[in-house]
Amino acid sequence: MTRNSIVLVPFPFDDFSDTKLRPALCLTNEIGTFQHVIIAFISSNISKEILDSDIIIRKESKDWVDTGLAVDSLIRIHKLITIPKYLFKRKLGRINKNIENIVAVKVKHLFEIQ
After folding, report:
1. pTM score, two decimals?
2. Which of 22, 79, 100, 110 is the right S-S partner for 11, CB 3.0 to 4.6 Å?
3. Which helix (H) or strand (E) segment is 97 a member of?
């Protein structure tokens, strides 16, 4: 799995009480001996409150192609975890160059990088 891949992983609930298999976006390649990867949560629940750090991908969009997602989805750049690669269940697809560029802008904005 490489940066910009969309993968299926056990993602923790906000209170860390359990996990649920969810799609996530790989923001990095594997890091270090333990092959950790920083991932961003992807939700199919597109709520009324869309944050500045969110990216919507709709089925009818050209950005949908090759993602492997089943429904309209919301990439939540602010909802991040670092997990070892061995926890990945499978690769679903990948984002295209347009979404990759939007992700880069959102990450810079979120972490206030100039």
Report:
1. 0.94
2. 22
3. helix 97-110
